[in-house]
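#structure-requests
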Amino acid sequence: MRPLLITVGSRGDVQPFLALARGLLAAGHRPVLAAPRRFEPLATRHGVEFAPLNDEMFALQDSVKGQGVRAAITAARSVRPILRRLLDDQAALAARSADVVVYHPKSLGGPYVAEKLGVPALAALLIPLYIPTSAFPSPIFPVRPPGPLNRASWRVAAAIEAPYRGTIRTWRAEALGLQDGFRPMADLIKTGSVLHAWSPHLMPAPADWPGSARPIGFWTMPLDDTWTPPERLARFLEQGEPPVYVGFGSSTTGDPDSMTATVLEGVRLAGRRAVLATGWGALRPGAVADDVLVMEEAPHDWLLPRVAVAVHHGGIGTAAAALRAGMPQVVRPFLGDQPFWAGRLHHLGVAPAPLRGRLTATRLATAITTATELAPAARALAGDVAGEDGVTTAITRIAAQTCSAQDR
């Protein structure tokens, strides 16, 4: 096969597609990964053919990081022209040879590139977003509705795309020459052409989902044995008991100094050392004690097996890495699907109740202490997750879709 993989977003959105590309290569196929330009060195290092996409959105996000609501509103005015340039880069992919397109819905243009090429398209979702169910509300719905309204809450996914439909419709006509038949992303994915790339042990398919929507397992990369930890990190880990990892990824807060002070005091009350990952700015430590190490980031698959507890925001990438590492987790969700995953982890017994609302040092310390008692459950679940091979299952599904289309 000649699969075209299209994704946009942060490393958490790109790395699963890179894992899929590596699996396709190993199986004898010839994948092309189209992703933001800044990830080209990562793809090249793994021997994956790469098509760069506009990554101005990163620069825009960096410019408002930690700058408050007003800066975010001002930056939002630049989104449409940046989106059009990103879509134009995707339109250029239609000049390539491909017989199937696997796309992240964030790309917005993926299914239309497939339409232009006349090949099947499969949406790859890292969270449940478009296939409705009455079993629970949409993970991104801002409130928990009464049970009878669960299915209706899934319409929120279509609302996210709504502000850009005019841009997409115009681009579709001007750049791809597709004049009619525009369908919202939600309608395209509801047909069942979807790969749900999370572990069924984390969240199995509800009974009212079609068989084609069942989760197939995480798409994970082999541990990068070329990565060497900074000397200060290696030395810190060797100096005492495993520390607590604290990192909130791309989440932000209006008062990072206060959040940092609360986190440091909570870790101290729990009697633990800590590794703090500053990420996008939810944490902004100044001078810290010798029992705290501050860094911007480190590969989760390397670091998390070496800590005692992972304190994080509930993003699926971090949650998945902690699950694979067999680490108990403490989740302080901020927004989006984070409360949903926090609830799932608590339900599975690998995390205490989510730390919703105002975070205090006492609440955090109690949660860390409780989490350490959940280590046996976390290790047992890691064994179950390790038995999955989401990439191989995805390749089988992609091949079946491609062969079916060719037979027609």
